[in-house]
Description:
Shape: rod-shaped
Strand content: under 5%
Oligomer: single chain
Low-confidence stretches: none
Radius of gyration: 20 Å
Number of strands: 0
Number of domains: 1
Keywords: Membrane, Transmembrane, Transmembrane helix
Amino acid sequence: MKPVVAGLLTFVVFFFGNSYLLGGLGQLCLIGGDAFVNSYFAPVMTGLALLAALVVGCTLAVLQKLDAVQKTLNDRKPHEQ
């Protein structure tokens, strides 16, 4: 459950961070063009936020599984000797 919550929080932070906080900076970098042309960058920002959320969520899930495997291997060692 922890990776899912971390993934969702990452998505929200990146999505709103890109939309509101970095949106003004993006407008400064994109000199020219109208709002319609610049609106095509919104799906890109959403995609980047989703990608960041997936990376964080999957990394946490893999780390939890690796911790469980390591704990299982550490529990087996004394019994085998």
